[in-house]
TrEMBL record:
SUPFAM superfamilies: Acyl-CoA N-acyltransferases (Nat) (SSF55729). Keywords: Transferase. InterPro entries: Acyl_CoA_acyltransferase, GNAT_dom. It comes from the Bacteria. Residues 8-147 form the N-acetyltransferase domain. One of its GO terms (molecular function) is acyltransferase activity, transferring groups other than amino-acyl groups. This is Acetyltransferase (GNAT) family protein. The lineage of its organism: Bacteria, Pseudomonadati, Bacteroidota, Flavobacteriia, Flavobacteriales.
Length: 147
């Protein structure tokens, strides 16, 4: 991995910097304006945070995460909106983010981690399984409003 890469927790007032990467992650399915409108309420919930990896102050990767409590798995960390720019893939950037994330999870007494991965995302599935995640069930969605 390149020496000039640095990982930082992104402050909430700079969180919009992840939106171009999240736009790419979702392959343009959602406009940046829509993503921005969805991000704002997430930040007020005090459960969503994000780390970024920077190459000479340019954001090249992000890993959002939720710290949640659920009855079936207790206090856990949930990576969300994980993206690495194509030029930096398979160079240890994802590993850097996961190492930080799991150490952070331990430091705040999380007992598990869970992740959602699109069914058609074979590379993502391989990445998550390579980091110890196992399929548990189906994540299903039902549209209630077309907004």
């Amino acid at each position: 991995m390149e020496d000039n890469l640095k990982l930082e927790l992104i402050p909430s007032d700079k969180m919009e910097s992840i939106l171009p990467l999240v736009y790419k992650l979702n392959q343009g399915t959602f406009s940046e304006a829509l993503l921005k409108s969805r991000l704002q309420p997430m930040l007020t919930m005090d459960a969503y945070q994000c780390i970024g990896v920077y190459d000479n102050d340019i954001l090249i990767a992000c890993c959002g995460f939720w710290v949640l409590n659920k009855l079936y798995n207790g206090k856990h960390i949930e990576p969300d909106n994980v993206y690495v720019e194509e030029a930096y893939r398979s160079k240890g950037v994802g590993e850097l983010m996961m190492s930080w994330l799991f150490e952070y999870a331990k430091s705040i007494d999380c007992t598990t981690a869970e992740v959602n991965c699109y069914v058609q995302n074979e590379k993502g599935k391989k990445f998550w399984e390579g980091h110890g995640f196992e399929p548990l069930g189906y994540h299903m969605i039902k549209k209630i409003d077309e907004r």
